[in-house]
Amino acid sequence: MNRTDQKIIEMMSKASDLNSGVETSYRYCLLTVPRSGSWLLSKMLGNTGLCGLPMEYLNVRYLRAYGAHAGVDGVRVNEYLSELEQRRTSENGVFGLKMHWSQFLNVYGTDQGIRDEGRQFLSQMDCLIRLYRQDKVAQAVSHYIAEQSDQWRVDHDDVEEDSFDMESIKFAPLAITESLLRLVREEQMWKRYLERRNIPYHSISYEQLAGEYEESSRTVLSWMGLDGQSIDIPEPATKKQANELNERLKQEYVDYIGAAAPQL
């Protein structure tokens, strides 16, 4: 079993539950695409102690981990989410999750589009927050590296052995382009779906969150009806993963597609 699946199994175990014993009275969802800063935001929200434990509960790897803990092969999504609310709601009644468009499509999609249950699922949320990234090339490069290494986040308490061999990640312009197309398409699908159905939502970029972490965190908490100005904002729990590999691959890709400024 690789390190990522091991982490997911640990996160889905009862040892990670809040066990507040209160009924859920407020629900929110982070609407995301990969490499858009959702881990940074969800860890902040979870560490306040006021926002449940927002994780990718509809990610197939999380569903598989839940099934392993429960001793079942198939998971009924409505029952699964209902049980999670009992286990992952904070003492003030707040439950949250985060969800990529691909996960939403996997659960509620058909060949004809999104089933009405998908709209109902989003409509029962008291707050929807859409995350996006302005630098799409950097996002695509980050996604490509994460897919190659299967390392999707790095916590501050992760040990050095968890890092991957950066030399093993080679420049692959077509694979990066595929990531870029996927990420742009999924971001547009979120916007189109929400706006065509008049579903209200807030938006925040990765650049805002990373560049103005405390101020942006308070803004998000205020969107959720909490007193964002009086809450202690936890220090970032995840390490910034961008490094010289990301910068090198990004520059190589920009040069490859001819987007670099011409030399006069």
UniProtKB/TrEMBL annotation:
Short name of one Pfam family: Sulphotransf
Domain named Sulphotransferase Stf0: residues: 28-247
Name of this protein: Sulphotransferase Stf0 domain-containing protein
